[in-house]
Amino acid sequence: MASLKDADLALKLGAREGQERVLEAQRRLLALRLQLGGLLEGPELGPPLCVLFEGWDASGKGGAIRRLVSPLDPRHVRVAQFGAPTPDEKRHHFLKRFAPPLPGWGGMTVMDRSWYGRVLVERVEGFATEAQ
Question: Which domains does the chain have, with CATH numbers?
């Protein structure tokens, strides 16, 4: 299995090649999104697609999400962001607020933060009780 110590950190990607790779990946994602949504090759819906972004503050999650969804039709993708819970959200189990944005069949959601990281943060910052 590969590990970080085996990575050649001297390798660089030129700006032009980087842009070409991003554009190709965006085209591929668009085609996959249309296929999952039943908009290509028949009316069958594909499975739900949920993309999770986790990372430190100011680590570039927002920019990566913008590049990811920019070629997609906003009617066919939902972007959900999660910060500190609102007073209404505090009245419920702390994971409840992550359920509504989850996609149904043929749907796609991109989450800026997820329940994975929030489980720790909610407990450390006192937004969730020990019992929860």
Answer: 15-124 (3.40.50.300)
